[in-house]
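Summary for the funding panel

The consortium committed to producing paired sequence-structure records for every protein in the target list. Below we show the first two records in order, beginning with the earlier of the two.
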Amino acid sequence: TDIDWIDISEDIRHEYLVVDNLRPAHGYKFRVLALNKFGWSTPSIPSQIAMTPSSGACRAEFYEALQVLQVKHPPLIHQRSAIAREDINLDVDVSPVTYECETKPLKINKGRFSVTANVSMSGKLFSAKVFDKSNQEGEDAAKREFKNLRTLRHEKL
């Protein structure tokens, strides 16, 4: 069955959200979406059914305290312009980049066409994939790898 989802808030600053005016003795499901510089995420998996108590039930003891904390902070939603997606340049850099590694690379795995290694630079640890481009087979493998990486869409790649 299709569920009519209702947006409750676009700004949740804590690990909870106080929802008012729910019908007594009624079941509700909840789900969450996230906003970052890439836009809104897909909705989470719906929660289990949460039943509200029957009419005449008193509010939870902590209701007023949570309500005060929730209202205390100004909404973040007005900062959307700062979160707007930046232009991402997916062009290939054809000039070779040389890095001065501070420590000897630690080999993780060696495959037919490349070696994966951990290298340390400026106090940070990176994983690198090194291709042997001295023969045509290694050159082709490197080109295939870069072609595959260009098709990926992830904020940390």
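The next record, for a separate protein in the list, is shown here:
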Amino acid sequence: MHQEQPYEVHPALARFITVIENAANFIARHWAGMINLLLLFYVALPFLAPLFMQAGWTFPARVVYTVYAPACHQLPERSYFLFGESAVYDLDELQADGVELSDNVLLRRRYIGDPEHGWKVAICQRDVAIYGSMFLAGLIFALSRFRFPGLSWKLYLLFLIPLALDGGAQLLGVHASNWLLRTITGVLFGVATIWLIYPYLADSMNSAPGKGKEQNE
């Protein structure tokens, strides 16, 4: 009677499969740290732009501003400044000091600062609050060993209401927001987003093949 020979995996394919499995297991174990590092990098890099400008390194500063331009409006009246008289300015203050700012937001965003007023951070105040709070909330979540219960969608939407009201009212010209409101609403959104997503990711990663129970030990 003919007996089929067992199928043998080619050594190169076996090594490739092992590499993929090891990579998947690494991600399952360290996903929170990887995301937190990305968030830290994303929120910290914009602060290098004013540091570079202050040091006279205009080219790397311009690179940072350019990289973040598609992701943020970068309007000076809604951004932080470093190395100047104040950390925040409104349009009236800047114009009273003789800074020529266009009514066109696409042109006004190009103002990155000057030696008197300091140099603009490459993302706006609300974005600093959003991504900074996401990093801190993610760090707390990871250090707690993923013991936080997940946030429901209904509560998540409640956390979004202040941001929607503040941003929408500002967009429609109903009221002029300020750095404090942008920070508070941004923090609420950032913390709520991590609170919603991280518990779900933790459950998914804990159930990954070969993961074991390391996250909860």
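Regarding this second record: Residues 212-217 have pLDDT under 50 and may be disordered. The radius of gyration is 24 Å.
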